[in-house]
Amino acid sequence: MSDRSRPSHRSSPRTNGGSGEKGGKTAPPAPKDPARRTAYDVLRAVQDRDAYANLLLPSMLRERGLHGRDAALATELTYGALRRQGTYDAILDACIDRSLRSVDSEVLPVLRLGAHQLLSTAIPPHAAVSATVDLARRVVGHHRGRFANAVLRKVGRRGLDDWTAIVAPDRAADPVGHLSVVHSHPRWIVEALAAALGEDARGGASGAEAEAGGPLAETERLLAAHNERPGVTLVAKPGRAAVEDLVGGGAAPAQYSPYGAYLPEGDPAQLREVRQRRAAVQDEASQLVALALTRVGLDGADSRWLDACAGPGGKAALLAGLAGRRDARLLAAEVQPARAGLVAAAVERSPRDAGRTVVADSTRPAWRDGAFDRVLVDAPCTGLGALRRRPEARWRRTPETAANLEPLQRGLLSRALDAARPGGVVAYVTCSPHLAETRGVVEGVLAERSDAEPLRAADHLGEVPDVAAGPDGRYVQFWPHRHGTDAMFLALLRKR
After folding, report:
1. Binding site: what residues are annotated?
2. Fewer CB in a 10 Å sphere around the end CB: N or C, the chain?
3. Are the beta carbons of 133 and 140 closer than 8 angstroms?
4. Which residues are marked as active site?
5. Cα separation values, 417 from 50, 119, 303, 375, 430, Å
6. pTM here?
């Protein structure tokens, strides 16, 4: 986005009553360059207090009255700096006499914002440096503003490709390290994603890999997809809205989900159906994994459904709508009261009032064993499947994060199987492709039990190509670079 397209903020301060005469009370001037200041404040909050940019940025834009080009610039700077943080840090480290780790934490967001403008936007270099240094002087002082000026002038001497050729490890000698720097992902995540894709992270390319572009060729396509801006996908809640309603508001029908629609631009809240909670923002893969659970054939009763980890309620709302159409009932359980409130709002007014919400720990449930015909376990996970939408997650997660979650994931799946009646079905879902959180959990639980068997999940999503994964293709794995969705995992298990 060109800096020249943005409106000027150098107008005179507004005065109370508009007179500006002597004795009139002068209102404080609007902050200079509110877009960059907002981006900086979000990056500081993400860095210092683990805030989530996708939650904080929209509220800041509303509070500060940013619209149009200013809002677009703040959004581009925030998400661009977060997505490319690893790459920019490697470049900044090469432009600083000492280590980047020695730079004050309040200065780092300024440098990353400047690097993003210089290396990945159409903002003229002189304007990018000038505006960023001005921001630095306002938020961290004149002395560190001079430091930012010196560093960013060095950054601006080369383009992004030239810099990565200098700072990234050689691809042939260290393919994982090379992709880590070029595509801005921690090394361990590159290795985990390569393993999930079935590629050898040590760099030995198979014949197929060589034809496709060398070792880790598909891993590279996935990493690149994580750094692209994702589109907005909507879900029409069954029984409350139809895809045609969303199309009438400017959306386009989704490629795979019969309840989905793509919004090409604009704020989803501008659609009447979204404001009325008859539709919501929901990734297409999230819709499809819930839909797959409802497609499995059952013998006998099909009236009691359970969403064991329902917060914040997206899948619960879809299931409640589908349950109501079949004269079934959904119990949506969530352990955190605040998130349970979000679930209750999401399932409100579902057909036949089919959705009910309860605050409950599904590892120690209040319901009896064998009580449900269908059970969804959307387990807490690392969230590595949603790095397009939550880019900061890649910098927060560690290999230990996945290891620490595994006991909880196994416990939830095991208790879900207890909750299912004989002949019932359980869907285990994660928004992560990490093998330890997906196949590892499912196969570990199945090895300990004799009362469950896996179904071929892809058979229940026949409209989606290339999703079968795991032994004999028994699981489903969505991918951003293949399907344009989050990397959702699904396993379907039948209770014997």
Report:
1. 309-315, 334, 361, 378
2. C
3. no
4. 431
5. 34, 51, 17, 8, 16
6. 0.90
